[in-house]
Amino acid sequence: MTLILCLDEKNGMLFGGKRQSRDGALIQRLCGKIGGARLLVTPYSRALFPDEARVIPCDRPETEARKGDFYFVEDGTLPQEGVSRIILYRWNRRYPGTRFFDPALWRLKLLEKEDFAGTSHERITEEIYEVLL
């Protein structure tokens, strides 16, 4: 499975129980990257994605994801097994975070890195990592 996370400069995922962003350009880019694969999300994240996307809302995506699936994580649990790639979307802002991603807990190899213009952020950086076993 591929994890997808949106992070601020301090690796914050949520602040005050709220998402980092609702950036439309990021969602459009992400949907293009996923293609016809399944995208698992919690009910909290479902409203971000267009109806035509193959989005599967579920209470525990980390347990329902299969090989080849994508899991967009905002308020859900990060799985410890079965992850082959991680896609990070970063913006150059700091929010008062209440939930963080710790990359030190993963063995990661950077495969791609690209900046693009968002609708709510001038610059968003997409980083794609392979998870090393």
Describe the protein:
By secondary structure, this protein is mainly beta. The protein has one domain: Dihydrofolate Reductase, subunit A (3-Layer(aba) Sandwich). 14% of the residues lie in helices and 36% in strands. The chain is built from 3 helices and 10 strands, in the order βββαβαβαβββββ. The chain has helices at 24-34, 43-46, 61-64; strands spanning 2-7, 12-15, 18-19, 39-41, 55-57, 70-73, 85-91, 99-100, 108-116, 124-131. A hairpin with a 7-residue loop joins strand 9 and strand 10. It is globular and about 35 Å long. The chain starts with a strand and ends with a strand. 29% of the residues are buried.
Structure summarized in a few sentences:
The chain is mainly beta. It is built from three helices and ten strands; from the N terminus they run βββαβαβαβββββ. The mean pLDDT is 91.
Features:
three-stranded antiparallel beta sheet, 3 helices, 133 residues, single chain, Dihydrofolate Reductase, subunit A, seven-stranded mixed beta sheet, mainly beta
